[in-house]
Amino acid sequence: MQVITLNGSNLTVRRLKDIVYKQEAIGICPDAAARAAESRAAVEKVVREERTVYGINTGFGKFSDVTIDPEDTRALQLHLIRSHACGLGEPLPAAVTRAMAVLRLNALLKGHSGVRRVVLDRLADMVNLKMDAVIPSQGSLGASGDLAPLSHLALVLVGEGLVWKDGKPVPSSQVWEEHGIQPIVLEAKEGLALINGTQAMTAIGALNYMEAEALALQAEWIAGMTVEALRGITDAFHPAIHEARGYPEQAEVAVRMLGWLNGSRLATRQGELRVQDAYSIRCIPQVHGASWQVLGYVKEKLEIEMNAATDNPLIFEGRDTIVSGGNFHGQPIAFAMDFLKIGMAELANISERRIERLVNPQLNEGLSPFLSPQPGLQSGAMILQYAAASLVSENKTLAHPASVDSIPSSANQEDHVSMGTTAARHAREIITNVRRVLAVEAFCAHHACAVRGEEEMSPALREKWAGLAKVTPPMNEDRVFSEDIAKIEEWLKQEAGITSAG
C-alpha cells in the first residue's frame, strides 16, 4: 500500500479515489505542517495579546460582536461543535465521510487556518484507521461552510461523535481507546477551523464525479451494444462529421464508439438497411459528448475546491494578517453540482429512448415485441421500460437547480446561502438512477444481441456481452427482472472501482 502525502495543493480526484476506495494511507507533508505551525503561532499571539479577532475570542455568526474571556476560549470551541452538530436524516455513506476527513485535512495544510499539529494528526488517523464518521446527510445550507455535517466530523476528533465499525455506529471514544490514542481538546479557533468549509458538498461532489465519469464511459459500450442489436448505422460516427462541428468531447465519443463497433457484423452502413437512424442512435456523440463537457467543467471546479482554504478567518503574510472573508460560501460547487445533475440526467434520457426502441416491435428491427420469448403469454421487458421511464421522470424533478434558492440564517447575518450540499446530494440520487437506467438498457441489449447472435458482435462488445452473461442470463422466460437489474447495477459499480471493503 502506498502513502499519499497531502500538502494542501496536490489533491486530485484520482488520488482521492485511491484513498477512499483503495484505502491508500495518507501522510502529511513536512513543509505544509510547518506552514500550519506558523499560522497556529499567529492565533496564540492573538490570545496572548487579548486582541479581538472573529472566531478566536468572539462568538459566531450574529454573536460575532460578543467578546469571549481568555479562560473561556476552549469552552467556546467545544460549545460551537456540540451546538452545530444538528444534522438530520439518513447517514452519509462511509466513503463520503472518509473523503470529508481527507479534504478537511488538506484544507488545513494550506497553512491559513491556525490549528495545532495534533489536529492534523488526528484527521490523518481517522483516515488511516478507517474511522469513518457517522454524519447525517441533511442540514447544511452550504454557506458559513457545511457547518452541521463538519461538526459531526469534528465530534469524532474530540471523542464525542460516532464512527462506523462493522457496519454499526459506535462511540468514537471507544475506537480511539482501542487504538491507544487520545481524542483532542480543542484550543482557540480550532473548532471553527474544522467546520467552516465546503468539505461535505465537495466530498459528495468528488465521489459523484468519480461515479459519473465511469458511468459516462459505460454508457458508450452499452449504447454500442444497442447499436448492434438494432443493426445501427456506423457512418454517423465518421470522424469528419464531428471534426466539422469542433467539440473535442463529441469527436472523442465518436472515436470510442467506432472502437467498440469495430469488426461488428451486426452494425450496418448507410443505405444497407436504411439511410439514417433515430436520434437516440445517430446522435450518441453529440449528446454523450455534451455530457462529457459538463464533466470537464465539474472536475475542474472540484479540484480547485479540494485544494482551497475555505474557512474563516484566514491567516496571511507571516502571521501578521488575519482577515475575515467568505471562502466558505459554496456557490461554485453548488453550480457545478446542478450542472452535473443536468449532464447525467441526459445520459438516462437518451438511454431510455434506446430502451424503447429495443422493446417496441414497431421500432426494434424484427426483434420480438418487448423482447418476449413468447409474446402475449410472456411480457418480456415490457415493464422494464416503464421502470426506466419512471427513473428518468424522477431525475427531471431532482435536476431542478438547488443553487437558485437561498434562505437567510443567523438573524440575517448570513443572508445568502448556496444550497450546494443539497445540489450534491440530489446529483448523487440522479447518478444512482442513471446507473439503473443504463442497467436496464444493458439487460435489454444483451438479450437482443443474443437473439441476433452474439458471435456476430464486435470483439470488444462480445467481451462485454460475456461479462454480462456471468451476471445475468438472457431472457428465456419471464422472471423477477428487478433482481437482474440489481446484479447488473452492482457489476457496473465494481467494474468502475467505486466499491470499497471499508
From TrEMBL:
PROSITE patterns: PAL_HISTIDASE
Keyword Lipoprotein annotated: no
Biological processes, Gene Ontology terms: L-histidine catabolic process to glutamate and formamide; L-histidine catabolic process to glutamate and formate
Keywords assigned: Cytoplasm, Histidine metabolism, Lyase
Pathway annotation from the record: Amino-acid degradation; L-histidine degradation into L-glutamate; N-formimidoyl-L-glutamate from L-histidine: step 1/3
EC number: 4.3.1.3
Residue numbers bearing the 2,3-didehydroalanine (Ser) modification: S144
DNA damage in keyword set: no
PTM comment, free text: Contains an active site 4-methylidene-imidazol-5-one (MIO), which is formed autocatalytically by cyclization and dehydration of residues Ala-Ser-Gly.
Localization per record: Cytoplasm
Principal place of residence: cytoplasm
Membrane-spanning residues: none
Catalysed reactions, as listed in the record: L-histidine = trans-urocanate + NH4(+)
Domain of life: Bacteria
GO molecular function, one term: histidine ammonia-lyase activity
5-imidazolinone (Ala-Gly) crosslink residues: A143-G145
Family the UniProt entry places it in: Belongs to the PAL/histidase family.
NCBIfam families given in the database record: hutH, PRK09367.1
Protein name as catalogued: Histidine ammonia-lyase
